Fold these 2 entries.
Entry 1:
Amino acid sequence: MNILTAAQTRQLDQATIKEQHTTSTALMERAATALASWLLRHYPPQVAGEVLLLCGPGNNGGDGLALARLLFGADYAVRLALLPADKYSDDYQYNHHVLPKTIPVSELSAGALPSIQPGTLVVDALFGTGLTRPLTGQAAAVVAHLNESGARVVAVDMPSGLLADAPQPDPAAPVVRATHTVSFGLPKLAFLLPQNAEFVGEWHVEDIGLSANFIAQADTPWHLTQLPAATPRPDVALPRRTKFAYKNTFGHALLLAGSRGKVGAAVLAAGACLRGGVGLLTVAVPGCGYDIIQTTRPEAMCLADAQADFISALPATKPYQAIGIGPGLGQDVASRAVLEKLLRETQVPLVIDADALNMLGEHRDLLDLLPENTVLTPHIGEFARLTEKTKDDYHRLDLLRAFAQQHRCLVVLKGAYTAVAAPDGHVYFNTTGNPGMGTGGSGDVLTGLLLALRADQRLAPLLAVRLAVLAHGHAGDLAAADTGEAGLVAGDLVQHIGPALRQLE
């Protein structure tokens, strides 16, 4: 799914109107109907109590007016507070004209702010994606008053004051802190970034029949990777195994991992690689890890390094279709030499994680040796060590795209909406996963799963990475359903990889 800019979102409305021979008023009615349906599901009249709708002078306010009419007809206790302006949109004026006269209406001003009790349900329909500057004056006073009230807030399309695809020009300017944000057709880029979480709350997307052609053809670097619903989709489909396939069909992977005290990372990554469907797996570990791997992962072959505490030598790489390095590797100078030799001597697909990433960060000259389509899996801190400290999440996205393009690699920037950056500058945000996955070893599991799918020669590099990230998060969701988020450990992810991949076949 493509993620559009604010300007493209406005163009999408116009394309829908033209393509479907409808009107902007009819499209607004669809939006209001979708909002009313969402509220009926989540906040029915007996739960919602009093509903206060704050409406601005544009089409976002028009959505609010149309919604007020529909909620009033569904027996909600509705009242309206309108922000005065010199000019109102045509659709706002139409919906104001057809508003039932019995709905209480007041005018907003800095000196006459509406009463908002903590139990009130407030619908924020002040400003949407058309906003291009910080809120000031009466609008700023209203938003500050709302934020101080402690009320439940449902934002229409966007929390007022938040820009859809750019950082806030004035961080001190007020932005609505929504409990829920209900967007139409598509989420906004702003929803996916940590710095906006306090404003967006929990976001939802309601289908209002916007032009699928325009969305599919939009020129944008931002995309969303989602689980298929009823039927598989080609963009996230794992090929089924044929009857006569055998272990060599799915590749032979080499995993270099572990050091004294960190062999568990090798165990987790190896388990994920095996559960990810690799045909053959060889795990290279320091001498202290040999018995551990042989005991915990008997399905894997094991190469024990001559050094007991760390990996000091690179095994022959010719037999392998993909190589992973980093989980629990440690920072010994000999292990860094292994990484450098690997980069200089092999051209097979690589997956680089954890300590190996930190070595690259300390010796950035090694980045020039990365084979094309190498997969790097940094979290935000590791990415900063590879690049630079960032001013905000948007700056980080700029650096992410530039890094992937410069080094012709695939970067998996881990987080709540893990972002996969491709060498062509496109970025794919993942939608699976949960906070319970913020636990030691979760990244090692992802590395193993990535290694398995990169060894599978049936998959193109970008598809393999997107599938691995999607399945990793989904395994976390399946595990959390069993254990709860607080009780989830990385080993639970390994056990749920099979069911997660099955849904992608």
Note: The two ends are 19 Å apart (CA to CA).
Entry 2:
Amino acid sequence: MALITGSLLLAVTACGGGGDGGGKKEEKDGAGKAKPNTPSVAVVEISPKDGAKDVATSGALEVTAEKGKLSEVKVQDSKGNEIPGEIAKDGLTWKPESHLAASTKYKVHATAKDAEGRTSAKDTTFTTLTPKNTFVGHFTPENGDKVGVGMPVSLNFTRGITNPDAVEDAIEVTAEPAVEIRHKWYGNDRLDFRPEEYWKPGTKVTVKLNLDGVEGRPDVYGSQNKSITFTIGRSQVSTVDAKSKKMTVERDGKVIKTIPITTGAPATPSWNGQMVITEKHKVTRMNGATVGFTDADGEGEYDIKDVPHAMRLSTSGTFIHGNYWASASTFGSANVSHGCVGIRDVRGGYDGKTPAAWFYDQSMIGDVVTIKNSKDDTIAWHNGLNVWNLPWEKWEK
């Protein structure tokens, strides 16, 4: 029994010893083939530095890679909104598509890969500057308005803009159905947008103002980030003929009424041109002194405290309005005004059946009133919202 037991132990020992020897050989061979788990040699750099404050809203943010190429860049504000940007074709740089907002904390996460496909990453945060001086753009029309086919988009800035390109890049005006829209500056504080022809009825127009953080002039930054939408109603274009002293009202291309009118007298003729209704007043006061019509004593040549059914056509004081002080025979036979278009009415405008009341009720902000055959010049495009008087080729793409 002792001999048998020893044989068994020898066999077991021999078997185990053979296994140990084979395992050492395999481990040695495997160690010779495996690659070391070394880190990526790619280096990600982010400007501005981590924790930076008072960072400029334009030109300061950039992500670069050395000894590798960028594979992902993600920039978010404190609300989780992502900032769009693009990695360059060579994979070495990333920049944001537009400016950043002011007084905002941003988080940056970027990764890069080296030639072996190994990844390195970097995360930083920074905060943009808080402006001491800001500007906004007051816009026409208002959000949700329904307007006539002649209404342009007009922005009036509270500070003169000396960096117009940056402001233009931060404003987007689109239409549905789509149509080409161009812009034009008047001075350095007004910017208007329009299509080549009047808007088509039913068009939906959207204005996006991404002005927050835009440096419109040295050390003066925009503070708006909002979107407004308005729609175009039916088409109404009325033509005033100063020679025949009649106005033809067209609705969606069809004449719906012809109205006797009076325009500017020979000494004070009306402007010619396409004019847009910008205000409506059931009753308003008109004083000649406010628009330069004064007598020898400096008093207004006229001061009518209750002009009915008045609608503004120009900044300089041109209206189309009800007239109760001229005789009924004047309308359609004589031009007697100081440049306005007058329509027969009653004092107080209480009679809804007068021609002036009818036209007032049928009109909306943005409708077009064209005056022709007057002895005066064509009205300037910036006198009111009368943008249609500037040739299309003079508007910027």
Note: Residues 170 and 314 are 29 Å apart (CA to CA).
